[in-house]
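Convert to structure. Protein one:
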Amino acid sequence: MEQLKAILVAINTPEKVTKALLLGIQQWIDKTSSYAPTFGSLSGLDILLADTWSDQQCIGWYNLCLGQLSLKWNKTVQAYTHASNVSLDTDHWASLVIYLRYGNI
């Protein structure tokens, strides 16, 4: 989990997205379930993150660990990045995460 966190931070993944991904995986490990960390917020970005979280929940957090990320993560990262003016290649964010996590095995 620390390796994934380091990768997400290194490629400038927005903090809320990083926290949501790590929380989802941790809840899967702990066999607990909850809502997205932004659930209930009326912010457009937070609603998008909650929707992406829900989509990943359907795909499975185990599957995320195998490199099967929801297609919505790229759009969510792009929206948060655009809002915060952070430099990040959002078109290839998911591919970059998968490559950095598994490409050197």
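Protein two, convert as well:
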Amino acid sequence: MLAPIFTAFPTSADGENAAGKVGVYALAISDLPPWATTLAVIDFIKGNVPEHDGRFLPTPAQLAKRARCIRNLKSIAEYKRIANSKPVEPNPKPMTEDEMQRRREQVAKLLGPDGLTA
């Protein structure tokens, strides 16, 4: 998930420990879903982050901030989708006693003799 961003941008040539650098980035994104981080990496590589000029590797904080924004936008979109969805219509007719008994028997069969699934 992080490898493409290190390949796409130049890093400092002071002999930094690559594993240590990756660890810092991993720490910055540790609380974020992988899909949001992947989309943030793609945004940086494609130059879709207005506050990043694309000349150097974004900082761990910049990457985490972008991934967090993507995650939040997805959450907002999901909320709007649910809020605008059509409500589920209740069953227009109540179950008859025979139907209720048939369903009880189905449940009992599924649970088994001890009340647990076999």
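The longest helix spans residues 60-83. Helices lie at 3-8, 18-28, 34-46, 60-83, 97-111.
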